[in-house]
Amino acid sequence: MKSMPDSWRRETKPHKFCPGCGHGLVLKALGMAMDRLKIADRTVFGVDIGCSLLAWDFFNADTIQTHHGRTVPVIIGAKRARPNLVGIAYMGDGGGYAIGSQHLINATMRNDRILIIIVNNTIYAMTGGQMAPTTLKGQKTETSSRGRDPKYEGFPLRGPEMVASFAPEGAYVARGSVSHVQRLARYLERGLENQLQDRGISVVEALSTCPTNWRTNAEDTWKFLEKEMTDYYPVGELVSPFKRDTQKEAADLETCH
Ligand SMILES: Cc1ncc(C[n+]2csc(CCOP(=O)(O)OP(=O)(O)O)c2C)c(N)n1
Ligand code: SF4
Predict the structure, then answer these.
(1) CATH annotation of 19-254
(2) Residue ranges around ligand 1 (CB below 6 Å)
(3) 19 alpha carbon to ligand 2 midpoint, in Å?
(4) Which ligand has the minimum distance to the alpha carbon of residue 54?
(5) So where are the chain's domains?
(6) How far, in Å, from the CA of 9 to the mean position of ligand 1?
(7) Phi, psi values for residue 13, rounded to 5°
(8) How far is residue 227's CA from residue 28's CA, in Å, rounded to a whole number?
(9) How far does the centroid of ligand 2 lie from the alpha carbon of residue 210, in Å?
(10) Taking Cα atoms as reference points, which of 1, 2, 29, 61 lies closest to residue 191?
(11) pLDDT of the chain, 257 residues: tens digit per residue
């Protein structure tokens, strides 16, 4: 694995996402979790096709890019070949829940010891804002110009709920949001801890923003995330193998932003 001089580790550089994009905040949360666990040197980070690939040189970690949810089997392959690695598969909701959904389902059934992060921005972003499995009812996109109509296009997919419905023992499943970065970092850290403890698969969805394709200003971007998205996609842990003081934890998370 890479060995970097300390001075490099402190360097930062501008990211390549549009202004107001949530990807940078999801990655910030992931970086915080990786730092707390000190695992960068043994992490293999997989990014997908879509805006997630703009993170290919974001971390001082070995990175690989694949297409449409295939980051999941590729990271599983690396993890199986080198069980000491920490495997992270990072992708969009188009890649993760549409064309690549079989990998998410099969990996969950096998309880593969990796962390899967799916960034839910309700659209296919990199290609210009087409409808995704997560596009909300009534939401206008390039391919649902009158707004998503469940009669023709089906209902928006709640991915973590689907995974939770058949998650095997030891799995960890949660949904966070870039509106609460610390809390999202906590969920990602738990997902990574779950892998380090060899318990089971971890799947964390992150609600995120795409002002470029939503065509929203800063205020409306945040409103859409905090109101419309969070109403349909509730934030929280759905499945957790950790034994914890839940009352203390709930109070703790309430104050965590
Ligand atoms: C087989 C195939 N179909 C379509 C595309 C075009 N394509 C590239 S990125 C992308 C959308 C990715 O959307 P998502 O996974 O939601 O990620 P985001 O860009 O929103 O982060 C599509 C459809 C492709 N590269 N290959
Ligand atoms: S198109 Fe959307 S998801 Fe992609 S970088 Fe720009 S704001 Fe982010």
Answers:
(1) 3.40.50.970
(2) 49-52, 91-95, 119, 121, 124-127, 132
(3) 8
(4) 2
(5) 19-254
(6) 31
(7) -145, 160
(8) 23
(9) 5
(10) 29
(11) 455 555 555 566 778 899 999 999 999 999 999 999 999 999 999 999 999 999 988 888 999 999 989 999 999 999 999 999 999 999 999 999 999 999 999 999 999 999 999 999 999 999 999 999 999 999 999 999 999 999 999 999 999 999 999 999 999 999 999 999 999 999 999 999 999 999 999 999 999 999 999 999 999 999 999 999 999 999 999 999 997 656 566 666 666 66
